[in-house]
Amino acid sequence: MGPGAIATVPGRGYRFTAPVQPSHAAGFAWHQRAGSPVLALRPRFCAFVVASLDGFVAREDGGLDWLQEASTRMPPGEDCGYGAFLDGVDMLVMGRRTFERVRSTPPWPYPAKPVHVLSRSLDGVPAGPAGDVTISAEPPGNLAKRLQQQGMGRVSVDGGKTLLAFLREGLLDELVVTTIPVLLGRGRPLFGPVERDTAYTHAGTRTWPFGFVQSTWRRA
């Protein structure tokens, strides 16, 4: 970087002092914070999903009775890490069906997190109790750029079609998949068809005595 790029701050450590100019390189953006430009990385899009042993998230008719039955084996207060996952995200992005399902079972579970709904059919936020909710029909790539400008860091993605859309655009950075020990035989798959391979690395696996197995995968 050349001489003078880093200066010593007595009693504190070091400081980067070289002039910095905005770059148009992919994956970076600049946004204003307290009147100064701040370099922002693209948000990391993460998903916390549950699937059967044969890779289905619901029955063909959308039924979740198998998941509800399996949940009865969980001890009180156990959430398999979902609370910690939610604490670690800045906002949530979900599809219309997921949003409507969440709204139908009050109370609203995300009072402290902004939620963005990707939908072509919703014209506005429906009346009723909800938190900070916005709606658009923009492609995941456009949304990613906008959230990058806003300085969002880690974003949860939920909903089958929404997950697939992010995966197809190469935007799904982390997957936390909890496998329920039941074979459904048929149903709605965790992921749909994609045009190219997407490699992930294994970041860890947890198990519980009631049979759930949870693996975390990060984009390679």
What does this structure look like?
GO terms for molecular function: 5-amino-6-(5-phosphoribosylamino)uracil reductase activity. Helices cover 18% and strands 35% of the residues. The protein has 5 helices and 14 strands. The radius of gyration is 21 Å and the shape is globular. It has a single domain, classed as Dihydrofolate Reductase, subunit A (3-Layer(aba) Sandwich), CATH 3.40.430. The protein is α/β, with parallel strands linked by helices and 220 residues long. It has an 8-stranded mixed β-sheet with strand order 9-8-7-10-5-11-14-13. Strands 1-2 form a two-stranded antiparallel sheet. Helix 3 (96-103) links the parallel strand 7 (91-95) and strand 8 (115-118).
